[in-house]
Amino acid sequence: MEGLCTNDSRLIIGEEVQPDDSQSKRLIIGVVYLILAFISIPICLFDCLAFCRKPYINQSCYKLLTITTILDVLNLVNNALIPGFLSIFNVTPCNGGHWTVYFGFYHILIWTAYCSASEVLAINRVMIFVSKRWSTLLYEGRRTWLWMIVILTYVGACVAWVPDAKYIYDPNAGVIYDWHFNQMHVFNNFFKMGFLTTAYVIMLACILYQVKGSMVKKESSQIKISLITLSIAALADIGALGYMVVGYLPKNSFVGQNAGVIAELFTVHIHLSSFELPTGEPTDSDEQQHASCKPRPNGIAACLPSTSRHERFKADEHFELTRHLRFPSNSCVERLADDTRSLPPAASRKMKRDDEFSLPLPFFHGALLDEDVDKLLVSEGDYLIQTKYERGHMRPRLYLVIKGKERTRRVDIQRVESGFRMCGKTHSDVRQLIEFFVPRGIEISDEKITLRRPVPKGKFQLVHKDIKLQKKIGSGAYGTVYKGVLNRDRRPVAVKRIESDNRNEQGLVDMMKEARVMQLYDHPNIVKFYGYIVDRSPYLLVMELCQDGSVEDKLRTGKNVSTARRVDMCMQAARGLEYLHHKNCIHRDIAARNCLLQGTILKLADFGMCRATTVYKIDLAKPQNVRWLAPEVWRSGETRFCTDVYAFGVMLWEMFVIPYSSPYCVWKAAMVKEKVMAGYRMPTPESMPDNMCTLMKKCWDHDPARRPTAAEVRNELEIINKVLNDDETPQTARLETSSMQYSITQPPSSQHRPASVYLEMSESSEINLQRSRKNEVCDRWRNGQMCPFGTDCRYAHEYLASSELPPRTQDALYRTVLCRHFIENNGRCPYGERCMYAHGPEQLRKVPNTERRGHSVPDRICHSFLFYGTCPHGNFCRYNHLHLWQIVPRSLDSHVRIPKLNDVRQAVQDLAMAGAI
């Protein structure tokens, strides 16, 4: 890999070598370089574009692909395009076409950068193609060893290639001195040979490790092509270096002078081998076309306009595009390209995309499961087409499913060279083949069945052309979730895609279970279901897109979420759960992570574990949501409505814990199971209101029969939500006396009350039981809280009877003061009509001026009223009871109003300056 020599220069390699001035040779070399450049540069660009179309490529991958593509293009310009023009214009390229004579240090940078990245690029591209998921390669913790391979490859390549670019140019002598046979240069080339050999061996080992098992069987032709081309590229690179070290090839031969360019050709083929999209990757929405349409490549031609997008880019077209670059027509690689090349053209066109076969027929139902197909076939003679993946077959098999007199029959539709064969009849088109049997009927096991009615697709059966996928947004129980668009009304949707390896396995079964459940329900607090797609892989589930993410994410971000908003979300979740239970459905996965937000509306989601039954037996050997699982499930193995209520109680805890954390986050699953079965429950979050705490503990009751139903939970939450909303609105009462008029405004009650301290029942015996105050109502009981003393409480746990209250006439004086309970509890007083205080302005006793006691300072404000909100003297106080709630914010406890000290001082100073105090 030496530099360029002009016609009057000499190349010093131990002996003088006269430059070859043959015009024909220069033209041939220049044309070869230009052909290589004009073929390889578009290939690199289209390769980058094709990879960017894949849904699993994220922003970091875009940057890496862009950088490596730029390096590739610069290398091809450096090694092919410019040397080609220089050769044509009477400048002879020598030994690889490098031109440091003209560009000096620039060549060192370009050559070092390319050679350092070319092997890294080859490793990344081939590994992406084989593993099918970029994140599996580089962005998971267990794949850190692949990062080490990439970094070591880059560092080793830099060390290997930098000395090769060190040329000393003497402009006075007009010659180039290189170190081709210098001992240091020979050692450097030996090092490069060993390094590249190790890199390629590691690369091949990684590929074999990634593709072990099922993938080699499913995509044997693509894997063989990748392995063969990678091996050829390795031999070419190592062979070129070996030639430079030991000089086996003639130095003046064309191959010897251009060994580096020949190696470059094989590196380009590695790019071509990555064009094949992995099986089951989502593609454009209009790919669903007739089976006879022309194939559309997903690599280079995927970026170009096309009239048909039905078929994927198979290995035979891929090979036809590139084989003229380096392989003879009888190469073994060509024979491995595709087994369909030996078939006639008609059959080859129909078998190109054997793993994703689809028919544009209204009665083609794709890979619909047998139990769903049997439900669609109602009357005798109903028929449809179904595809099934069977063990030992690479391609899906077509079946004509017919409803017989006693049971459902399936007739195999075979794909042959001339088209399709069924019951001894062959035709190039499936529709015409079936129409042939419509008037004649089909004999199956001595039973003749008449084809009467084709069963069309249902309301929820979509096809791939109805959906356009955009970007990945998350993962579900068995697949990946993408954001997409429903083409019929341009509505944004969430599309759940099962993995390609689960085409006919548990993934499809689980997806159809979820689809069967979701299509039965329609409620504002449940994610809306639009349909499922099983006409070909990948299989998709289309649902409503909730733009604001999950409740767990909202709580985890630490944003300010008010108590009223948290209660409102719990209430909406309870409404959705009540609807499911009313429809005899168990969700089995109630948690904050499965509650999605669309604005202010909460919707229950993720119905992968949902079952449309009242009792469902589970396998405890399989993984379970231990932290949300009720204790009785571990004993009986059955889930019921009460288990959903228990999980709802855990979700209530999630809603109010600040900062957010997972339930029992400090314990492992085994410890959680042991503690919960022993009766342990998590402590109450400090921000949870007392009535919410009571409801949560009811949901956690150890006895499932004592837990509230979803309807009772919803009703309780609606009451709590209404009380909170009423407390948010200030209540105003207008008071009138003979001398003045003023308003009293009730401020909003505090949303975050301190957590109550509950005593154990054993401690109640230490309390001195006094029944002398049974004429007063217990404040804890009145506020809906749990009283730790129970029946031993010294206060009454019921509204007092009339006989237990003093007569109204004895304390009529107190009617001049508003009732504190009436104001604080929004018009509700435990004493009712027997209360000694006034329930509203209309019940206030009008006191004339002559009865006012010591009204000597009417221009000053009563300190008792200012600090405590009430005054024992009522209207007979000598000071004015002006209201300052709007000036002085106050917090409410169970007995008195205590204003904030700083706010009081500021208010008193303002009033003092105004002369009011």
From TrEMBL:
PANTHER family referenced in this protein's UniProt entry, alphabetically: TYROSINE-PROTEIN KINASE (PTHR24418)
Keyword Cell membrane: no
Positions of ATP binding: 496
Matches recorded under SMART domains: TyrKc, ZnF_C3H1
CDD domains recorded: PTKc
SUPFAM superfamilies: CCCH zinc finger, Family A G protein-coupled receptor-like, Protein kinase-like (PK-like), SH2 domain
UniProt name for this protein: Non-specific protein-tyrosine kinase
Gene Ontology terms, MF aspect: ATP binding; protein tyrosine kinase activity; zinc ion binding
Organism field: Steinernema hermaphroditum
Zinc-finger ranges (C3H1-type): 772-800, 813-842, 856-884
InterPro entries: 7TM_GPCR_serpentine_rcpt_Srt, Kinase-like_dom_sf, Non-receptor_tyrosine_kinases, Prot_kinase_dom, Protein_kinase_ATP_BS, Ser-Thr/Tyr_kinase_cat_dom, SH2_dom_sf, Tyr_kinase_AS
Stretches that traverse the bilayer: 27-52, 64-89, 101-123, 144-162, 190-211, 223-249
Keyword set, alphabetical order: ATP-binding, Membrane, Metal-binding, Nucleotide-binding, Transmembrane, Transmembrane helix, Zinc, Zinc-finger
